[in-house]
Design goal:
alpha/beta, two-stranded parallel sheet
Length: about 130
């Protein structure tokens, strides 16, 4: 939230986390997964008002709590007629999961991926 306020000083930034409750009407809303799925908090957010849902630690995106959020924003169903207008972007340092769940349940395609081994090989040449 602090970075968003610095980068976009003309935008209204709300936080939904712990004891803090966002209005659901801000230009940018920052929320923890655990907080937004707690109680009826998620229902305060009208999916039609959101242009982008940015998910950090996206390798968790197929976990039940994350999928609950994606369903609310109409992003979990891959049938185009069921999807909302909100764009989904996920970022993660790792795309592997130890439980065998496939990210394809929530993610259409990976736009950019860099294997650590290839990055280290380039460093070795320097």
């Amino acid at each position: 939230a602090r970075h968003c306020r610095t980068l976009y000083p003309d935008k209204d930034v709300d936080v939904e986390m712990g004891a803090q409750h966002a209005s659901g009407l801000a230009d940018i809303t920052v929320a923890s997964v655990q907080s937004i799925v707690s109680g009826d908090r998620l229902m305060r957010y009208d999916p039609s008002r959101f242009k982008l849902l940015l998910v950090d630690e996206a390798h968790h995106i197929v976990a039940p709590t994350y999928l609950e959020i994606l369903r609310h924003f109409k992003l979990a169903d891959k049938a185009k007629e069921q999807q909302g207008e909100t764009a989904l972007v996920g970022v993660s340092a790792t795309f592997s999961r130890s439980d065998g769940l496939r990210l394809g349940a929530a993610v259409d395609h990976i736009v950019y991926h860099k294997y650590v081994a290839s990055a280290l090989t380039k460093l070795d040449r320097c």
